[in-house]
Amino acid sequence: MTAPTKPPHPVPSPTGPVPVAPVGADLHSPVIDWFDENARDLPWRRPEAGAWGVMVSEFMLQQTPVSRVLPVYEQWLARWPRPADLAKEAPGEAVRAWGRLGYPRRALRLHGAAVAITERHGGDVPADHAQLLGLPGIGEYTAAAVASFAYGQRHPVLDTNVRRVFARAVTGTQYPPNATTAAERRLARALLPEDEPTAARWAAASMELGALVCTARNESCHRCPIAASCAWLLAGKPAHDGPPRRGQTYAGTDRQVRGRLLAVLREAHGPVPQTALDRVWQEPVQRARALDGLVADGLVEPMPGGLYRLPLT
Question: Is 231 in contact with 169 (CB distance < 8 Å)?
Answer without folding.
Answer: yes
